[in-house]
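Why should sequence recovery work at all? Because a backbone constrains its sequence more than one might expect. Tight turns favour small or flexible residues, buried strands favour hydrophobic ones, and helices have their own preferences. The token representation captures these environments compactly. In the example below, the structure is given first.
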């Protein structure tokens, strides 16, 4: 998440419109990360709102020991991890059941501008859909590791620190998650293509 340091300073000085500009500049990235981690658009919207409540409360105290984007990323991940823990507790007590879909109708990645034959575009769209469904089907702890390590590009050490586990636990979860994702994604392809054999 790239944030103009001058915009952060303007927020800290209390300049009119600076906080709105900061939120507009970072909203899409924050929501996208929440959506990937929580796999539910409504929960992602709630988490995004919580992130910006925390930003409003804390921007004055931001000391700049890291970039604001790094700090915002960490706040977002922490909010999502809290939401995942809350969701796990709710499921354990039986107050909610099942998993929400990773994408809703109309949320698909646009392939209209992509190049290729119609069959190649259809295959790409199918792979995207199967990958999203497979990621959403992972247990929450495994999905968090995949999102943070593979999609967000954090190091194993950073993921371990955020999740409060050892680096070995992160590596094991990631290895198992990759195996499950491979099986789910390629299994869907085999089922789709295996009817004519």
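From this structural description, the recovered sequence reads:
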């Amino acid at each position: 998440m790239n944030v103009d340091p001058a915009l952060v300073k303007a927020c800290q000085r209390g300049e009119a419109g600076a906080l709105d500009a900061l939120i507009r500049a970072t909203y899409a990235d924050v929501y996208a990360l929440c959506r990937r981690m929580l796999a539910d658009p409504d929960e992602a919207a709630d988490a995004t709102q919580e992130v910006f409540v925390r930003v409003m409360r804390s921007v004055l105290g931001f000391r700049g020991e890291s970039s604001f984007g790094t700090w915002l990323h960490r706040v977002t991940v922490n909010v999502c991890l809290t939401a995942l823990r809350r969701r796990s507790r709710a499921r354990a007590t039986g107050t909610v059941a099942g998993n929400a879909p990773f994408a809703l109708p109309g949320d698909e990645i646009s392939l209209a501008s992509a190049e290729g034959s119609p069959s190649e575009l259809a295959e790409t769209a199918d792979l995207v859909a199967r990958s999203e469904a497979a990621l959403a089907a992972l247990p929450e702890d495994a999905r968090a590791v995949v999102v943070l390590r593979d999609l967000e590009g954090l190091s194993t050490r950073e993921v371990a620190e955020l999740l409060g586990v050892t680096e070995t636990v992160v590596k094991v979860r990631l290895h198992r998650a990759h195996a499950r994702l491979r099986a789910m994604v390629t299994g869907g392809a085999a089922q789709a293509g295996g009817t004519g054999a």
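A few observations help interpret the result. DSSP finds eight helices and no strands in the chain.
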